Fold:
Amino acid sequence: MKTENSWATALVGVTVLWGWSFVAIHESLSSVSAIAFNALRFLVGGIAMLVFLARKPRRIRFAELKDGTLAGLALFAAFTFQTTGIGYTTASNASFITGLAVVFTPLFALLLLRVQPNRQQAFGAAMAAVGLALLTLSAFSVHVGDLLVLGCAVFTALHIVVLSKVSKNHDAEVLAFVQVMVVGVLSLAWSVVTGGFSIPHTSQALTTIVVVGIGGTAIGYFVQTKAQVESSPSRIALILVLEPVFGGLFGYLLGGDRLSAVNLSGAVLIIVAMIVTEYRPRMRAASS
Structure:
């Protein structure tokens, strides 16, 4: 339990960086295409992870390559939808809608892992869904960017469940590396084929690629993979709900996004949902 809580805490720290990245990526897309940004981000992350892996050389087994590629495909789809959608909506909206993965994760866990959510998890997920609805409530119109990011939420949930299924059988470092490289290579190939590849010409975009590539990708997905070895898919999904909370905070502080009282109440509700879902009172034996 101590190890599980340590990695869960580390994953909360990663969500802070991911929350900030929504604002930084939104600004970067003015100088580089979404698919090129993903290619550069994940390739930088992959190179950083390779340097880390080189300290202890090991073989990548075929099973690790296969399962890592499967998880990487889901991650590639998630980030392609998300980064493209960020260009057509606000950073806050993108971060909040991505958080809807918490709603889809129990469904995929039930379908693929035959994991039946308990009442506490179901109640927490429902509360988090209401919170996310309040966070995104600003108008009743539907925007293309929001729909694209919704696709990201679906594939993020699928990635969580796939990773939970395969992570227990493999080296977490190798599995994270394979996922990151799959996304980087596929994004690079797509950007070259479509003519969308370019090197960003602003220092802000270059800095974002390096920081998000190393911190948010190399370190971030290693931490998530390790956390999923120790925790259930539902717990991981609820921790990841903090990402839109931090995204909204950074959107307000750095991106000029403004939240209404209703939106803020949604953020509070999400935090309460995490506490409700994860709190496990320990029964102490009465001393004689």
Q: What stands out?
A: Residues 282 and 288 are 18 Å apart (CA to CA). Residues 203-230 form the longest helix (28 residues). Residues 282-288 have pLDDT under 50 and may be disordered. Residues 2-278 form one domain.
